[in-house]
Amino acid sequence: MALSGTLEALGHSAGAYLSPHILSYTERVMVHGKYVTEGVFAAAMDETITIADGHGIPATQFELLTAGALKLFRDAGIEWAVLEAGLGARRDATTAAAPEMVVLTNVDLDHTELLGDTVEDIAREKLASLASARILVLGTREARVVEIARRECEKSGVHLVEAATEPGIGSPGKPMLPPYAEHNVRIGILAAELLTGERLGAEAGVRVERQAVGSLPARFERHEVRGVPVIVDGGHNVAGLEAVLDAVRALYGGRPLGVVFGVLKDKDIVGMLSRLSKKAHVLVLTRPDNERAADPEWIEREHGLRDLGGRRARVEVDVRDALAAAVAEMEKIGGVVLVTGSLYTGSLILRGLRGAT
Length: 357
Description:
Elements: H1 2-9, E1 14-17, E2 29-31, E3 34-35, H2 38-54, H3 61-76, E4 80-83, E5 101-104, H4 112-115, H5 119-126, E6 135-138, H6 143-156, E7 159-162, H7 179-196, H8 202-212, E8 221-225, E9 228-232, H9 238-252, E10 257-261, H10 269-276, E11 282-285, H11 296-303, E12 314-315, H12 319-333, E13 336-340, H13 343-356
Parallel strand pairs: 1-4, 5-6, 6-7, 9-13, 10-11, 10-13, 11-12
Antiparallel strand pairs: 1-2, 2-3, 8-9
Helix pairs in contact: 1-7, 1-8, 2-3, 5-6, 7-8
């Protein structure tokens, strides 16, 4: 978002392809900073599917969506397409677009059944997209990842920019954005400046930041239920969860925290639960809206998770009941509710929240 928004602010037309969507497939494609309409999206995807079927191409849903997004960008005549990878890089459909630049904000254990079960393995998979690139913008200081990135860039002749060490990257957050989001916005601005060789002025930078506030569903999206603040954030790996917990603390200080947690089977569940057990005054386990969802009753039995008060985690399979339980507890003690663990958990919650707020 920040990368495409900065390119637009610098006078260059841009589109963004995002994944996954939360409430509507149209959330996956933005042109000139706006989501495409349902009609435009449906027409492009229909043409893409027709071509695939006509040539007997056994494409996956993500591959069809990626091809359709590229068609939309071509039809709109944009200069720059910003593509968010869905699964690493080596196996990801977005790599077919032969990126000129790769931006890697961080690496954590994710999709381990396909990408590998160590940070090093996953970093190598993600950096497989460097084959056509001339620049890698790296947004983490993680020593293992930095070492691999330097080695891969030297091997491929790619210019490495270690964004985490650039002036202004990682500085204290402003009230408008949680710290992790501000970090990513600054990396996006830097990446756009590197692509174009132009500098974004301070005033334009503030506008880009402001546009990023609440622009993506279930990314630190704020609501209120019966006077209780409710934050919905997809935080689907350990790094993401730590970032959102820090952001909640930065925004709401020491207020008690109630957590609604629903996660997929292929995530680092143990690592995520270890973080939550140190922060949550109330913990409610639930089931995301996905066939790969981890059973919350199994999580409770297997891990015997307890909150800060020593109470075992509560299980509410229905996410609406889970949210109601967490809100009721936080209402009593002036707390805050965080819905996290998966974007698919957030999608179910938001369908209700957006209709109620």
